[in-house]
Amino acid sequence: MQGGNGNYRYDWGKGYETYAGFTICPYKDTTIRLIASDYFSDISGKNEKTSIPDTAELTIKVEGEAFSICSFQLNNEGNLMRSFLSNDGKHFSIDAGSKTLVFQQKNGLGSSSNYVGGYELTVKDWEQLNKTTTELKKRLELFPNEHNETIAVQSIEESQSDIFVWLGFLDINVFIILTLMILIGIINMGSALLVMILVRSNFIGLMKAMGATNWEIRKIFLYQAGFLILRGMLIGNIVGLALCVGQKYFGIFSLNPEIYYLDKVPVEFNLISILLLNVGTLIVCISALIIPSIVISRVNPVKAIKFN
Fold this sequence. Notes:
Blueprint: E1 8-11, E2 16-17, E3 30-38, E4 54-64, E5 82-84, E6 91-95, E7 99-106, H1 129-140, H2 156-159, H3 161-199, H4 201-209, H5 214-250, H6 257-260, H7 271-290, H8 301-307
Antiparallel strand pairs: 1-2, 1-3, 3-4, 4-7, 5-6, 6-7
Helix pairs in contact: 3-5, 3-7, 4-8, 5-7
């Protein structure tokens, strides 16, 4: 037994007593029922607040010479040698010499199954969690009930603080990684645009000689850069979504649950987030290319055509 006040009483069929066990050598199929509870001073439990009694059963089936004397074998630790017939250990057999005793154990649900240790409330809006917790604390923690007891209120952020600290670190890592990826993408696209401008300097010179303005020429290169960005985004979305689908349904990348509280990397598909991410990436990259395209205004048409 466990729980309660540590002072236990047992009912083997003739009322409560303090004897926790006894030796038996069954000669026929037997079922033993045990009712257990705790008590303070009076073993009958009268006028005392005791836990709700819990009941367990042990069924014994005798195979072989039923009326023979039991001859049990002990292991090195002094316990009866058992042959387990189920993975949960509740069904096992013991060799008793000329007969075999087969046991089927049925544990009770525990007295805790009859008690309510707390209520769990869910909120529809996560942003209102702290506000809801504060309101509940004002209503419940400051006003005792009819038994002069108060109810403690804890939000999930308070009861599972370690998990939320870990999630906070993950958010920081995600922010750093996304920032680095955006900077690298901007630098790469800027470099690609500058290479395109240098390679087509004669084209720029001809366009200026024909009367095209700097902004009109810049838009041509920005359109070409935008096409390259869209093609890269298409390939990236196909590869990324394929990996996400594989992770969601097949768990390609696993985690150590003892460290991360999860056995695999979780994936959630949100169409709006995916669309906003793609649109935001396109806008940021195109906007960042406006500055490198200023180089076009410095191209001298005479030198560019002459160079050609």
